[in-house]
Please model this.
Amino acid sequence: MLRGIYSLFYIGVYPFFLPREFLKKPKELRTTWIKERFALYTKAYFSSLKRKKVWIHAVSVGEVLAVVPLVKRLSEEFDVVLSTITETGREVALNKLKGLPVKVIFLPVDCPFAVRRAISAIKPSMLLIAETEIWPNLIMEAVKKMPVALINARLSEKSYKRYKKLSFFFAPILNSLSFIGVQEKIYAERFADIGVKPEKLYLTGNVKFDLEIKDESFPWAKQLPSPVIIAGSTHHPEEKLILESFLNVFSEGTLILAPRHPQRLEEVKNLVKSQLKPGAGFTPLTQLEKGELPQGNPFIILVDKMGVLGALYRICDLAIIGGSFIPHGGQNPLEAIYWKKPVIFGPSMENFPFIKEFLEKGLCFQTDSSALPSLLKTFKKAPQEFEKVGEKAYKLLKEKSGATKKTFDLVKKYFCLTKSRVSE
Model:
């Protein structure tokens, strides 16, 4: 009954959001988006996938990047359907998984008719949902046909409080899952507190520690003024804060700005142009890639393409993590740490509780907006000390890796336990 009320509410509300969401999509993607959101697949849509299929849902860029190693491992034995919600997530998935037996689609809307059509067309043997994408109809329709699990699951303080209030609705849904593999012990405790049975919970660790970043070539990087600082996955108004701090501290050097949302590129470009002093230089990344060498010092680069930030961290001397100087919860610092780079972030890193251990061991730097210039001055005076911190942080990253294997082993365990059920 509760799910029926939820479905009626969803069906009643979603049409009001549909036109705006449709128009926000690039024109060349709109037809694909609408067809896949309502599971209007042709007969040949999944015909290239011949083996048993695992359906994995990863909402956006961060979740897609996190599950890439698992997808690669699964693709050795199964075909994979990877669903996303955002077009940026879709683009990254297509880029990172090119050449593998993987079909990338948009997640169908959470209505029974769309979910049933998707399951019927895909015919998956298992559904894995990354982090905390709890779609009631998707889960409850899927569990009728196959094992379903949450992987790399987390439950932020904010989400925990919301689910706790609605535990009468969500607890039965979560208990219908075969298992929930959580990133941290605190998340297991929160799931248990909202009513999830202890035997459903496994501490697998965070698959984001199992990074695989391609060592791409950036021939123009050798000509950048030093030091090189990357501000990654920034949000409004962090670009202004970081740009002003950089220009006030460094008369020479390079700042690479990578906004989290590509629709803000024009806004950030105008901001940079308004702040530049005589003699400074500026270019979008795509212009550098065309062979236009950097001119000016200090020099500012705007990252205006998707899927390259992880590789770009390799060329920097220091990384500043966005989403942390505003009450957002932070963005993933591990891509920079993967390249042994020291990282700075602001007060808000609630989305990444593992960072507490890095802080306690002195393996990263946390500051607020007012003290950022001072910390940059410290880096300017003693970059070698920051470099040592980056190397030590990398060692901890490697120590905490292994979640992908634990998750894969769980998937194989439950797949085998339910073979008779999924082969029907």
Remarks:
- Residues 219-399 form a domain with the Rossmann fold fold (CATH 3.40.50.2000).
